[in-house]
Amino acid sequence: MSQHENGQGEGLPARRQAREDRDRIKAAFGTRLRVLLDLTGLSSREFAARFPAYKDSTVRKYTLGTNLPPWDFLNDLLTEVARRTDDPAAPQRRTELFSAYRSVLIDTGATTRGSDQNSLLLRLLDGEEALHRLAAELAEVRGRENRLRLELEEEIGRAQGPGTGTASRERRHRLEEEARALAEHHGELVRQRGVLVTELDDSRRRLAVMEAAGSSGDLVPAGTGTGAGAHQAPPPLPPGPPTSFTEPSSPAGRRRRRPLVLIAAAAAVVCLAGGGVAVGIWAAGNGDTDNRATPPVSVTPRTTPTHSPPTPSAPATSAAPAPAPERSSWSLIEDLVPMDVYPEGTKRSFTAGALTVNNRDYPATLYAFEAERTWQLGREYKTFTATAGVSDATPSGDVITFTVQLDDGVAKEFTMAPGDTVKKVSLNISGVFRIKLTVQESFSTHEGYGAWIDPTITK
To answer: Are the CB atoms for 320 and 26 separated by under 8 Å?
Structure first.
């Protein structure tokens, strides 16, 4: 036996042992997830029905230890356990589970620089923790900004009174400087959050590709000829979801009507050439639900010319329907297809539907505790309008941050609490290529919902 063959033979038991060790680690973690799923009282199929981001088969792979789950699944599972059991040890259970999860990822070969499935899971875990820290820091900065604003207003009020001295002016100047510094820090945190969210979304898309391909997530040693290898580039990202702007000058709603108009025009030509017989056929095949026959038209040639107007029974003048009125507004919920669609029930996904805000039911809303959605406008629109509010089911003391981003800049950002009067938003979007709507719950209770009510764009 050659030295190369001998080396290969000696390496096989070691690789087999390493694979068996990884399988045992994943199986033990899967058993832990099975216990948590049992605490919810849900089967894997029922859990998948409640959280459409996961398939029944995918949940079973997680609980059997075949695959390790992403951060989102652990978060959703723990949230459901806490909701159904009212577990007082929920925070401790969360900390312990995520600590064990990190250890499992590292023990199965994951690294923050790797491109395999488990390494992407580790990067997703680290990124979510960093995002949570950023959210907490942003909430603290916003609170300080609000307090500074009140102090500055009080100082300005005192400055208008008699006897204003140097000390008051100096205090006002100090407050203004601090407010400016906080605003810059706030902007930098928002920028960092945007970069981090983009990276996390990229990791999620790559993970979705790998899971669809049936990857187990384990590293395959480079050079074995049996797999992708630890250093192979990740698979290409799937193409993004289609938008409704492949023809910017013709919105989706109008494109669908074009075949009907062409058919109507053709029918009118046939009617003029053949005495209108074809019109009855076309009308009957186009939704004539009241079963009324088209009045017959005589095709006998006239013996004497006449200049009398056509009788009401002649269908030639009504063959082509009147053109539909030109649209000037489109709903971001119903008419436009967003660029980034996340399954409902997952992190950063909006739910479209009715919601009660400030004791009033709104039928058309996009709501979530934490979500974002982007639409491509193609510089075709002039105005964005919407109303923002917080659901009545949101816990007291919770705060929702609403953000409108136009291209690369934040155009509007504000916070609201349960019971606040709905806030109307109107922005000039002339020349804007993309618009992004965001809501962010400050305390991450996953029970407070911010809602964009009837978001609309107009030309």
So the answer is: no
